[in-house]
Amino acid sequence: MVLDRHAPVGVFDSGVGGLTVVREIMRNLPNERIVYFGDTARVPYGSKSKDTVVRYSRQIVRFLQTQKVKTIVVACNTASALALDVIEKEVDIPILGVVIPGAHVAAKTTSNNRIGVIATESTIRSNLYPTLIQRENPEITVFGKACPLFVPLVEEGWTKDPVTYEVARRYLDELLEKDIDTLIMGCTHYPLLRSLLREVVGEKVALVNPAYETAWVLSRLLSELELENPDIYWERQECDDEKYKFFSSDAVDRFNLFANSVLPYEIKSTTLVQIDEF
Ligand code: DGL
């Protein structure tokens, strides 16, 4: 299949968390067009079964393909952990997730070989982060902790609230007792809590945001496949409707508001998609 270099990159998440990945793609690949889908009607994925997350991801991939995307970024740790291995065999365009890049960076970052991972219940249960990290370096011990309250707190906008701080203390104390020197923010919502997490873990623990490495992996992939968008007029970097398109399965106004608090450009509108139809 011949892919069009001018086509957009498709990005999806269960909701708004994947916008932290979009932010890095916008910064690092300023020529690329993006089509983003947030499954706000069915969030959270983090407590759902593999079968359900695969079914949802399949529908989203079908939708993104109607947008003629040249590649897909699964900007959701849960979908990357539970669905990517199935979906990648079904599509004929490149598709990448956030877990492999995040695991790789963490394995390179730790000095004492003790890494913590915070993520949704399903991502922790999948055991994918420990598996990938130990494949890179069997000396590393990985401690996982599911933090199910973080997603609703972020969605509520309580990213600097004392209540969230207290919740974070409760979750992270257990990992800090294990003497970790690296902590993976293994859910795309969590980088929005970065400053609060920094306060809780202190300066000595490195915080890994898989979104940075994911943007680099995407950049390398597009370059290897000669799929980089050559259009230099995108240098204007305006968030015009042609360059960046946003879709969600529910509450588009709320999504739009949230997106404008996360992204470097003002997005004008988000379009509703009946994702069950795909
Ligand atoms: N953004 C999702 C992830 O990275 C978490 C939100 C959810 O539970 O759907 O895992």
Task: Tell me what you see in this structure.
- This protein is of the alpha/beta class.
- It folds into 2 domains: 9-97 and 212-277, 3-Layer(aba) Sandwich (Rossmann fold); 99-210, 3-Layer(aba) Sandwich (Rossmann fold).
- Helices cover 42% and strands 15% of the residues.
- It contains 12 helices and 10 strands.
- The chain has a 6-stranded parallel β-sheet with strand order 4-3-1-2-9-10, sandwiched between helices.
- α10 links the parallel β7 (182-185) and β8 (206-208).
- α5 crosses α7.
- The chain starts with 8 loop residues before the first strand and ends in a 6-residue tail after the last strand.
- The model has no long low-confidence stretch (mean pLDDT 94).
- The site of D-glutamic acid has 16 residues, from α3.
